[in-house]
Amino acid sequence: MQSSNSIYINIKDDIETKKMQFILKRFIDIVLASIGIILLLPIYVAIIVAIKLDSKGPAIFKQIRVGKDGKNFTIYKFRTMVVNAESKRKLEINVDDIENFVFQSKSDNRITKVGAFLRESSLDEIPQLFNVLIGNMSLVGPRPEIPEVVKLYPQNYRQRLLVLPGITGLAQISGRGEIELGKTIYYDLTYIKNFSIWLDIKIIFKTFINVVKKEGAF
Q1: Cα distances (angstroms) measured from residue 153 to each of 97, 158, 169, 176
Q2: Cα 138 to Cα 26, 49, 112, 132, 169, distances in angstroms
Q3: 44-91, pLDDT tens digit by residue?
Q4: Calpha distance 115→181 (Å, rounded)
């Protein structure tokens, strides 16, 4: 695995040379997100009912994430944990070993029964289609990070904020929940540097395969 430092230089230049592709990418995002929301409407309703029957609290989980150019936005997901789960576990980050930080845990007793299924099937992510439609996310891009982690980023890590974060991405299909931050950054920077519409298509296809196989989901 290369260091994220090795692909830090000239990533901004790579983006500048692909402006038209990014415009096309946004158009594709709007079309596919709109179609997805309409087709998945019955599933949205079924999941909302299941969540409400399983545990107390809202069906939709909202959280502040850091998006393009370092701007904060509200991400939407189906709630998979008990209410006020964030207050029941302190986020511990070793600043001197940030590369090995892993955000999610396989053994998290805050996850509800319905939530475990939603995470395993990745159905908890589908409300993010509204984020894509709004324009603060893309179908494919770097994983959207929480502010508490972003503020600890070394300078080279911040390059991942040059583009919209994605529902899926190169990092997500390379390990989903279980890979360390350093590897996530490497995959994100590699994606940005090598971005193309064809790469997005391949990542979306690989995402469906991973979801079916339930690889790395928790």
Answers
A1: 11, 6, 20, 20
A2: 7, 27, 28, 5, 10
A3: 999 999 999 999 999 999 999 999 999 999 999 999 998 877 766 666
A4: 24
Q: What are φ and ψ of residue 83, in 5° steps?
A: -60, 140
Q: How far is CA 155 from CA 31, 150, 159, in A?
A: 34, 10, 8
pLDDT tens track for 176-189: 666 788 889 999 99
Whole-angstrom Cα Rg for the chain: 17
Q: Tokens representing 137?
A: 């996310």
Q: How many C-beta atoms lie closer than 10 Å to residue 73's C-beta? A: 19
